[in-house]
Design brief:
167 residues, alpha/beta
């Protein structure tokens, strides 16, 4: 399956964006970009210390992801990005109209458990509450699908690909 769309795999920390994103990209036959790689070092340092980012911290990061997505328009691609607020998604869409979102959703306890077992990631579980407090799920007028994160990463990527194909 191939798509000309650029897909943003979104959701709170610990939902599996970095794991599911490349699997979904492989299923769609398009390149994958890791959203965390677009963060300036100052953002990573701030999150590593347990301090949530402000909107001012996020704008350059979102703009960099938007520029990547714009460059992939018509060719397709998958990028991970929390995109927790409607305003963040609007900013991404302003750079790359036509984006489609895959919102990874799930039970908070499952997500916290997965976060507590990951190694080498800068986002501490202490920030999970702020992530859920910030989250604004996709609106009915936003192009995208919600996919539950129960099951294996392969199961999740398969459900995401099927949901995208059905929309």
């Amino acid at each position: 399956m191939s798509t000309p769309h650029v897909v943003v795999v979104m959701g709170v920390a610990g939902t599996g964006k970095t794991t599911v994103g490349p699997l979904l990209a492989a299923r769609l036959g398009v390149p994958y970009a890791e959203g965390d790689d677009f963060h300036p070092q100052a953002n990573i340092a701030k999150m590593s210390s347990g301090t949530p980012l402000t909107d001012d911290d996020r704008w350059p990061w979102l703009d960099a992801i938007g520029a990547w997505a714009h460059g992939r328009a018509g060719h397709g691609g998958v990028v991970s990005c929390s995109a927790l607020k409607r305003g963040y998604r609007d900013r991404l869409r302003s750079a790359a109209p036509g984006l489609v979102f895959v919102h990874l959703t799930g039970d908070r306890a499952l997500i916290e458990d997965r976060m507590s077992h990951r190694e080498g990631h800068f986002m501490p579980t202490a920030l999970l509450d702020s992530q859920f407090a910030t989250l604004q799920p996709l609106g009915a007028d936003e192009a995208g699908v919600a996919v539950d994160v129960a099951g294996t990463p392969e199961d999740i990527a398969d459900r995401a690909a099927k949901a995208l194909a059905a929309r």
